[in-house]
Design a protein that fits this description.
Helices cover about 25% and strands about 20% of the residues. It has about 200 residues and is an alpha+beta fold. The strands form four sheets. Strands 7-6-5-10-11 form a five-stranded mixed β-sheet. It has a two-stranded antiparallel sheet with strand order 1-2. It has a two-stranded antiparallel ribbon with strand order 3-4. Strand 3 and strand 4 form a beta hairpin.
Length: about 200
């Protein structure tokens, strides 16, 4: 099976040489890493995010176990679609860990969490097994980032999804959305408040 690191390599975690003349401590030309796409806000691209009241683009993606998950079939209650840049990265790990710890609160409200990234199913299975996530981690790996593009949260420069969150009602309409800077974790309390408000 392909290693998770190979997926990360393909989306731009490359090594780039410093300008001519730059030297490291050994006297050899210094090298620098490209900014981590999961942590940097530099040069964020303007995108048109799906607006409140619009129909949520339907999609079918495989989860961490290779099972197809279709948005329109999760209609027994509200669905929270959470886009994030990369599995295993620091901020993403913290965000999904908090969703894991508070998952029972979402279940009590009848809400489904779908977490979406451009990682492969193999990487997501490894991450999920390690972290014991109780919700679906969906792979928007190929066609690369298509679902993130449909929601207006794909960063083409970095090849990852931005931190976009969409609350979809049982009719398939977006009732609330937010786009958080890529270097900032999101507020789970706000998710729960919005779901409670939707329930009336």
């Amino acid at each position: 099976l392909p290693l998770a690191v190979s997926d990360r390599d393909r989306i731009g975690l490359d090594r780039r040489r410093a300008p001519p003349g730059a030297r490291g401590s050994s006297g050899a030309p210094a090298e620098r890493r490209a900014p981590d796409p999961a942590c940097s806000d530099q040069n964020e691209t303007d995108m048109t995010v799906i607006s409140t009241g619009a129909a949520a683009p339907d999609f079918t993606l495989q989860d961490q176990y290779g099972r197809d998950t279709t948005l329109s079939e999760t209609n027994e209650g509200p669905t929270l679609v959470v886009f994030y840049p990369l599995a295993f990265s620091g901020i993403c790990s913290g965000e999904l860990a908090e969703l894991r710890e508070r998952h029972s609160e979402f279940v009590e409200l009848g809400a489904t969490i779908l977490a979406v990234s451009v990682d492969s199913t193999f990487a997501l299975r490894t991450w999920s097994d390690r972290e014991d996530f109780p919700f679906a981690l969906l792979s928007d790996f190929w066609p690369h980032g298509d679902v993130a593009r449909a929601y207006g949260v794909f960063d083409a420069e970095r090849g990852v999804a931005r931190r976009g969150t969409f609350l979809v009602d049982t009719e398939g309409n977006v009732r609330w959305s937010t786009l958080t800077p890529i270097s900032e974790p999101r507020n789970v309390d706000e998710y729960l408040e919005r779901i409670r408000a939707l329930a009336g």
